[in-house]
Amino acid sequence: DTGSAAAVPINEVDIAYVTPVTVGTPPQTLMLDLDTGSSDLWVFSSLTPSSQVRGQEIYSPAKSSTSKLLSGHTWSIRYGDGSGSRGTVYTDNFTIGGLEVESQAVQTAQEVSSSFTQEQSLDGLVGLGFSTLNTVRPSSQLTFFDNARPKLDEEVFTADLKYHATGSYDFGFIDRAKYTGNITYTPVQQSPGYWTHSLSGYAVGSGAFQSTQIQGISDTGTTLLYLPTAIVTAYYRQVQGAQNSQYYGGYVFPCSSTLPTFTFGIEGARFTIPASYINYTRISPTSSTCYGGLQSSSGLGINIFGDVALKAAFVVFSGTNPPRIGFGTK
Ligand SMILES: NCc1ccc(-c2ccco2)nc1
After folding, report:
1. Which atom of ligand 1 sits closest to the CA of residue 79?
2. Residue 170 bears catalytic tag
3. How far is residue 79's CA from residue 236's CA, in Å, rounded to a whole number?
4. Which end of the chain is more exposed for a tag (fewer CB within 10 A), N or C?
5. Model confidence, pTM
6. Is 9 close to ligand 1, i.e. is its CB under 6 Å away?
7. Predicted-complex ipTM score
């Protein structure tokens, strides 16, 4: 089997991407954020206090003839951006892009943090990290990808995220029409559960490529690109008027600045992030100061290759044994 679904940016700066999924019988359609940086599938639900729901679609297990309570099971998750949620668990039929998993663990939120309440076009997350990260207790649950694996034509899913446009996620096949040339693969270290791999180096603008191993996680659920401070300062040294603002919590610069491109390496291959992707957003709607799409990872304890980087490539998440990740030019 295979599946293919849209990845729709939820606002005008691509803060996150959502994908239509269906849960239950008859199907209830929700828009979920497919997140390779976590491994919980959770949804706004009929169990979410109405004070915490603001425009989101909800899953109502009582309206599904195939829902089953996973008795005694709970979950609680906190993300790197400080957002979080917690609740109970049902199993039900779950499909993405025509690919169905029966009896998928669907984690129903009984509490969500304010930033999720405020994001009205995001109805929950589909974790596509390794199932070892799943927070359901007393027994942890499998991700959609792990459940779908046995029926997939190929043990892969791909991400084709786009700048200010709708892209796609495919399951079970690699669409040759979505990239040119070959996919370059590199090993993944699957413990503790992220898609952890290394970049082979980087270049700022037309500068020389610096060959240096940079370990981090490819995370479709993180908006920006977070790299070591030394690399980030070298980048913004090329930007007139750029500064690392304590007030805004990162590098800002005049929106009129000319930004250099940023190139990253995967083994011998090179992928260039256009300057426009790094001119991320105005710090407020009327401001002429802009916030960068490349920021320092020093506070995070890990480098994160988020959407700003991933949307510059066609990315293959390969669940083979051993797992690997591949990047193709598009
Ligand atoms: N990296 C996981 C993740 C995804 C989306 C969010 C989110 C969206 C709106 C508010 O918070 N938070 C964390």
Report:
1. 13
2. no
3. 27
4. N
5. 0.98
6. no
7. 0.96
